[in-house]
Structure prediction request, 340 residues.
Amino acid sequence: MLATPYAHAEGSAPPVLADGFGLTQVAGGTVTHSDTDFTITVTTPEVSGPHRIRIFLPRDYRADPAKRWPVTYFLHGGGGTVDDAAAAPALRSDSMITVVPDGGLKSWYADWVMQNTPVGAANWETFHLNQVVPFIDANLRTIADKDHRAVVGLSMGGSGALHYAEARPDLFGHAASLSGGLDFDMAEIRGAVLATELNLTGAWCAVSTSTPAGTGKCTGYGPIVDSDAIYGSPYPVFDADRVWKAVNPAATGNLARLTGVETTIYTGDQGLIDHFTDIAARRVKARMDQLGIDSRLVAYGNGAALSPTCDGGHNYGCWSAALADYIPRLQASFDRRGAA
Prediction:
């Protein structure tokens, strides 16, 4: 049985959350970073291995036990971890709960075609949407409707954020992608996915993690898996790449599902990676315009107009600034949509 969303006295201990929705917490796996910042560790049959979920609570969460809060889900990049969220201060908002679920080193936020690889079960989309979201709503005082739930991600997570909003527009009323690999029709984006599968560390891996200080190299993408493991064959021969096409966040049919979802896309255009994320972002914006779906594109180029910390590249110097721009706008939208 699930616990009633907790009312907790002042203090540094994290809330006690109840198992459910296929998630089992690991004993001793909770880490308290502060009174409003803690990490739990869970297991699930959907994804092999234990996985962490980091949670930021508003400072006034405990002060008003009757109040409910909007929720933002933040999806980290390839080679990253839930702790990357700490590199973006805007995510520690006092107007919403922020949940950072583990996205693995190379999940691409998908239910993989192959489940018998060296990484084992890999139903990441099911884990996040069918388990983590209801688990959070059952255990914390959320406003559990799409108008007060957002999904935001960067790099690999930027692709995941748009895909999740397309797959479940009933769950998310807000979506934002930062330097996302959005268009699977682009050979360069497919190449990035293949690089993660084959653990070919390079620029995407090196800058998609915040450790150390947003400029150091990540530790890689984990065990090598088959190049068809996530989405099947990437080659457009005899419809072999049909899964890529079906889940492509930039596909017109998928974008049409974002009607009513407040969608924002950020990207620079400097360096090898954001040169291509900029192309993908502009394609998505143009297609949404053609569909008559409102969206906001912030193509900040070399970053000069965004922040002194941003060089227009694929890094937290830009993403932290983009989130500092986005989160207050999201807060205002939550407020406009009122309480539950």
Observations:
- Residues 24-335 form a domain with the Rossmann fold fold (CATH 3.40.50.1820).
- The chain has one domain: 24-335.
